[in-house]
Structures are given as C-alpha cells and as structure tokens.
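[job 0412] stage=complex_fold ligand=thiamine diphosphate status=START
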Amino acid sequence: MDNLLKLFESMLRIRMVEEMIAERYSEQEMRCPTHFCLGQEAVPVGVSSHLRHTDYVYSGHRSHGHYLAKGGSLKAMVSELYGKETGCALGRGGSQHLNDLDAGFIASAPILGGTIPIAVGSVYSTKSNVTDKVSVVYFGDGATEEGIFHEALNFASVKKLPVIFVCENNLYSVHSSFDVRQPKDRNIADIGPAHKIPSVRANGNDVEEVMKIAGDAINRARDGGGPSLLEFMTYRWLEHCGPNKDLDLSYRTKEEMDEWLSKCPIKLFETKLYKKNILNKESRFRIEQKILKEINSAFEYAKKSPFPDPQTLFDYTYVKS
Ligand SMILES: Cc1ncc(C[n+]2csc(CCOP(=O)(O)OP(=O)(O)O)c2C)c(N)n1
Ligand SMILES: [Mg+2]
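[job 0412] stage=complex_fold status=DONE, emitting structure tokens
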C-alpha cells in the first residue's frame, strides 16, 4: 500500500475508534475516565511513521492515538477501557494507563509531566549498548508548566540523549486557555533553545508536515545528535474528559471551534490524496469498511472477555494480600 495511504488509514482508524468509544461510552460499561483525541490524529501518526518497533513511546492521559499509531493492539486497548483481563494493562489501568511492552508503548499516566523523566531515564540507561533506539514522549501544553519538564530537557541536553519531546499544543489545559497560563507571545518551542535543544513549532493538523519535522528530529537523535523539542499546534474537539461537546461551558467560542473543525487533519489530507489520485471514493469506502470490521470485532472481543479475578486484586501492587 502507498505510504501516504497508510498514513490516511492510520488517522482514520484512530478517528473511527474514538467515535465508537464516544458512542458507546453512555452504555456505562466503560467506567474509566476517558480523554479523547478527536481532532488531534495527525501528530501521533506523523511521528510514528518513523518509529521502529523497538523504539520507546510514552504518553499522558490523552493517549489512545499515541498507542494505536505505535502499533498497539486495538483489542487490548478496547478491553482495557472495559476493565477486562485481556486489556493491555490487564484491566487495571483504564484509558489513562495504557501500556504495552510488546508494542514499545512503555507507559502512559495522567500525572502531568509524569512520564517525561521516565522517557529520558529509559534511554539514558540503555544508551551504552543500544545506540539507535529513540524515546518519544507526548505531552500537552499544560504539562510544560511542570518543573520536571524543564529538568528533563536540561538533563537530556547535557547527556545528548535520543529523546523526542513532542508537545501537542491544543491551546487549553482543561478550561484554561494558554494565554492565562504562560507569558504572552511565547511559544513552547522557544523553551528548547534555552537548553540548547533544537526546537520547532509546526502545524499539528498537517500529517505530512508532522512527518517531515519528526523525521528530521528522529534521524538526528539516531545519529547521536541528541534531543529535540517539537511543538505541534492542534485542537481538541470534545470536552477535556469524556465523550461530549462542551461549547456550553463558554471557555472557548463557537468561532474558534468552527475554525479548527475546518482544519480537520483527516479532511485536509484526504483532499490532498484525492487531488493526487492516490485515493478515490471507492478506495476510501473499502478502507472505512475494513476499519469498521476491525473495530466491531475489538468491541465484541472486549465485551466477551472476563473481568480480572478478584483474588488477583493486589497483584502488581506494593500491598500484600
Ligand atoms: C500534576 C498534575 N496536576 C494537575 C492535574 C490535573 N489535570 C489533568 S489533565 C490537565 C490538563 C492538561 O492539559 P494539557 O497538558 O495541555 O493536555 P490536554 O488535556 O490539553 O491534552 C490537568 C490540569 C494532573 N493530572 N496532574
Ligand atoms: Mg492542552
């Protein structure tokens, strides 16, 4: 399959999975807090297009796209949301704690900034024997207000570690806009040079732009050139946590939302692919049907799977039963 088509399929897959989760969330069988990434699909897909199975990926609370784009199992993710034993975290973590060593998706956690130092430390520990493994950590604009973000940048720079810091700047931390939280007119990418880290701010809704910028950073890291900080501008379509729209809360305007909806990363790319004759209505339909089949089978599998045995409640914890 054409590489550009693969990118398209990967974005559409994330979109359709999230739409299905949103649709079925009200059935109240998925009981974990769930942060959707609808509208933000281009960043993980563009970044992951350069990643190898053996590379590490870390994430935060909004992690479905990061997990799927890295090659995580859809069945294991959906099962995790249902709290089932077949989930990627054995049904103990839910949406905010996806992890899957087989996919190189080492950890995600909702404590803001929590996985940033772990992404740095994990390649620091392997650097002597694995030279071309890179570690990617995704976080939001809000997480850059945590002290650990700055410490991790400094350490990665001093040790020239192959870490790609990927900030998905969607302009909000819960309901607070960027301009009430950080100095006026400063970009997050401006922080990198203070640590001597190459940094770029780019359009996070343009998968080809993301791919190009991430590729440069990842290749540099593999060649021993050290870390990069990438700030991708994007926008979250749904409420901070949960499957609903939230314009009624008035922390953002309909005009702003409409503007970003018109910059839909999938529509944007799809239009380009139509123009290049790489995609047509028929092939798009086939891709959609294929994804739908996969999603239905993942939900069926998750719903049929057992819950973890209550006897194992304290397994993997520090508490002895
Ligand atoms: C240390 C810490 N402080 C506060 C929170 C509560 N909290 C959860 S998500 C969030 C907003 C995060 O915003 P951002 O990093 O921009 O990510 P986004 O939700 O926009 O993807 C906050 C403040 C937390 N989880 N951890
Ligand atoms: Mg944000």
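The two ends are 51 Å apart (CA to CA).
[job 0412] exit 0
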